[in-house]
Amino acid sequence: MMDKKTFDRGPLPTGYEELFHGLRVRYGEQTVHVVNDQALKAYMGYSLSRALHLAEYLKWKHKKKSGQVLRITTTSLAVELLGHFAIQEGCFLVLKFHKYLPVRKPVKLFCQWLLKHMDVIDCGGMDCDNNRFVWDILSMPVELYKKKKAL
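^ that's the sequence the OP posted. Answer follows.
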């Protein structure tokens, strides 16, 4: 089980490269894989503007490396990065205080299961990411906010 204490950087996994602020990323044909660790937390936190900046950079770098445009909107990618980060942080918090919950065991098991899937944020277009539609839908209010702010 992963927790904040054991969730350290460790060696750079095969195929990953280190970016600014220690962020670690691997690029696929139509995917980007971001390590969800302390470096991501330190850089992005819950900042939408930082997540948007990172999403723009990842899309630019993907195109530079593969010659292909990553078929994900910048906003959807940013929301996915924030969403995974927030879910992971929420699980850490729940596990810290789960002993005070009336249904301890199922909540603990669910959070442990979720954390197994949060160490790397796998982002891809509709054809290779089965939950892209979720992030596209969740990004709609952000798109509206951006348009309103631009007026």
